[in-house]
């Protein structure tokens, strides 16, 4: 749909380059760039602002350092790298505010730095060194408090913050530093945060002089090419006349109306029999956090890890079934959930068992217009897919057989969300699950979610009219999200920390990264990544809904389920 064509209000943002254009303006001798938040961004902005940081991403990056600098100089170097990162990826330093320029809608505001020194000064208020307040900090304990205290960032100041945990530096040996980043989810997804962490490690390996040069270079250049568009700008326009465009959207809405709803699924077997009615207030402990406001839900993260042998078994099973590793991870979580459901309710007959429903975020990047972003993913939020339905298989069947059968089904369903050559029949399909309907359906579903939350505000609308979308018969069992092989983005060994060369006074190498979000109601979101040797899960949990003991049992089961066992198949 080209800008300027007639369209109803609810379609004004679809493939619109004008509505979400970055606009430059001056105020008090400073240059600012602003643009409206896109629809997907607005959804996650609402999460954060109205629900005490819900969905904010909390990322713990572990790096190993070696330096001959003193403690103060090491700190200054880390702060300098952070300051440059914030303007190399501008939304890290942007803020989100109600903008009178955009009808009081929420908008990003990025201030163009006046100089390299301005970039350095700008970053310092948004990094916090915990050793200024206490000497010893347990990383896991701090992470738990970070997830359960007041929101760590103020979006009217910046959409990110860095906490550096205490470390013991030495000029004789290397040492580990934990850098904990908090980022508003409206500006990043899993792929983005991995790329930003990779950029941060690269910046740490520049000398102070090079970092200052980089800051000066960023300040001297126009930031326009680095300011990301709203994803809706990159949706493919609907071609043709106004009449054809109207016809397309009429069909798209009818297809949503006639689309069969997802079937009822068994609910998360890790859930409490009765959810807690209110979250527990964490005791005040860390001076760098505010405990004034308590999130509506208690949040925590569990981190199962598949060792090398289990990871090799997973890869082997995926190859045998001719499915992707992502489909295999999806299947693995489903099998563990089925086993735990069977343990919780052992007396249900197989024919009465409900299926597994795994929800997952949709990565729209492969379907967007413009240059491909593979290998250079930056700020872009994921959408919401229908999920995958897998039939219930009992644990007395062989594990390998269950994995192959369910893995192929998961792979087939997940393929619709992948960019690939399609047959003429697929391209011409007008079905509700046609590839051509992915972005229009994603746009409308996101808009409806946003409108439901804004229902008390004026200007809302019912885009389906007399043809409502069928409601799923039950919530999903759990959520699953995978970034795949993270070694394509970040991996240990890029920088040698065993010694310093004659021209080095500081070197840093990646060791590990894990990230979780503040959960939504009832959420059990399994994030996953692999480094070819191990497979790492980081699971975001609403502990008001999910029993901690059962979640711990889930961790134990998924870590051991691929270990050698009787392979005699009943399938």
Task: Explain what the structure shows.
There is one protein chain. This protein has 571 residues and is α+β, with helices and mostly antiparallel strands. It has 2 domains: 21-228, Chloramphenicol Acetyltransferase, CATH 3.30.559.10; 259-275 and 297-369 and 383-421 and 428-455 and 476-494 and 507-560, 2-Layer Sandwich (Chloramphenicol Acetyltransferase). Helix content is 31%, strand content 18%. The protein is built from 13 helices and 18 strands. It has helices at 39-50, 71-88, 116-123, 139-148, 190-204, 208-220, 242-258, 308-321, 325-344, 399-414, 424-428, 438-453, 548-560; strands spanning 23-27, 30-36, 57-67, 95-99, 105-111, 127-129, 160-164, 175-183, 299-302, 305-306, 356-359, 361-362, 383-384, 388-390, 478-485, 506-517, 524-530, 535-542. Strands 9, 10, 11, 14, 15, 17 and 18 form a 7-stranded mixed β-sheet that branches. It has a 5-stranded mixed β-sheet with strand order 6-7-8-3-16, sandwiched between helices. A hairpin with a 5-residue loop joins strand 4 (95-99) and strand 5. The longest helix is centred in the middle third of the chain and has 20 residues, at 325-344. The radius of gyration is 24 Å and the shape is globular. Mean pLDDT is 89; it is low at 421-433.
């Amino acid at each position: 749909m080209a800008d300027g064509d007639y369209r109803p209000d609810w379609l004004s943002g679809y493939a619109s380059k004008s509505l979400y254009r970055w606009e430059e303006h001056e105020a008090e001798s400073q240059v600012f760039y602003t643009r409206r938040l896109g629809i997907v961004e607005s959804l996650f902005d609402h999460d954060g602002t109205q629900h005490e940081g819900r969905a904010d991403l909390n990322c713990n990056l572990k790096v190993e350092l070696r330096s001959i600098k003193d403690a103060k100089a090491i700190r200054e170097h880390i702060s300098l790298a952070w300051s440059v990162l914030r303007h190399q990826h501008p939304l890290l330093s942007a803020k989100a505010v109600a903008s009178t320029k955009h009808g009081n809608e929420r908008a990003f505001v990025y201030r163009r730095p006046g100089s390299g020194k301005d970039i350095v000064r700008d970053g310092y208020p948004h990094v916090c060194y915990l050793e200024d307040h206490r000497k010893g900090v347990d990383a896991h304990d701090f992470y738990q408090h970070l997830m359960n205290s007041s929101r760590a960032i103020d979006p009217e100041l910046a959409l990110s913050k860095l906490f550096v945990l205490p470390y013991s530096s030495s000029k004789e040996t290397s040492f580990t530093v934990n850098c904990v980043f908090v980022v508003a989810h409206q500006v990043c997804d899993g792929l983005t945060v991995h790329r930003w962490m990779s950029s941060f490690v690269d910046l740490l390996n520049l000398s102070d002089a090079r970092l200052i040069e980089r800051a000066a270079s960023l300040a001297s250049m126009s930031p326009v090419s680095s300011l990301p568009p709203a994803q809706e700008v990159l949706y493919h326009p609907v071609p043709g006349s106004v009449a054809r465009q109207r016809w397309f959207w009429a069909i798209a809405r009818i297809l949503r109306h006639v689309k069969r709803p997802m079937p009822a699924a068994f609910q998360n077997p890790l859930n409490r029999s009765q959810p807690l009615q209110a979250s527990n207030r964490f005791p005040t402990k860390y001076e760098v956090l505010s405990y004034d406001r308590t999130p509506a839900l208690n949040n925590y993260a569990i981190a199962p890890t598949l060792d090398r042998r289990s990871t090799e078994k997973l890869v082997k099973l995926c190859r045998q079934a001719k499915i992707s590793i992502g489909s295999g991870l999806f299947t693995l979580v489903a099998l563990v959930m089925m086993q735990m459901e069977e343990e919780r309710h052992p007396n249900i007959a197989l024919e009465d068992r409900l299926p597994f429903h795994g929800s997952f975020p949709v990565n729209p990047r492969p379907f967007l217009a413009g240059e491909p972003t593979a290998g250079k993913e930056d700020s872009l939020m994921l959408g919401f897919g229908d999920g995958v339905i897998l039939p219930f298989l009992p644990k007395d069947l062989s594990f390998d057989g269950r994995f192959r059968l369910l893995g192929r089904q998961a792979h087939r369903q997940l393929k619709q969300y992948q960019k690939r050559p399609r047959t003429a029949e697929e391209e011409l399909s007008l079905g509700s699950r046609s590839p051509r309907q992915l972005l229009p359906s994603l746009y409308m579903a996101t808009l409806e979610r946003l409108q439901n939350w804004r229902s008390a505000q004026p200007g809302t609308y019912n885009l389906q009219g007399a043809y409502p979308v069928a409601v799923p018969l039950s919530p999903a069992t759990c959520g699953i999200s995978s970034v795949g092989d993270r070694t394509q983005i970040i991996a240990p060994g890029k920088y040698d920390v065993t010694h310093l060369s004659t021209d080095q006074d500081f070197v840093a190498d990646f060791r590990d990264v894990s990230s979780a979000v503040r959960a939504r109601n009832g959420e059990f979101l399994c994030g996953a990544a692999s480094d070819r040797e191990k497979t790492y899960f980081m699971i975001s949990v609403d502990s008001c809904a999910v029993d901690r003991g059962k979640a711990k049992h889930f961790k134990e089961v998924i870590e051991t389920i691929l270990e050698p066992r009787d392979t005699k198949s009943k399938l």
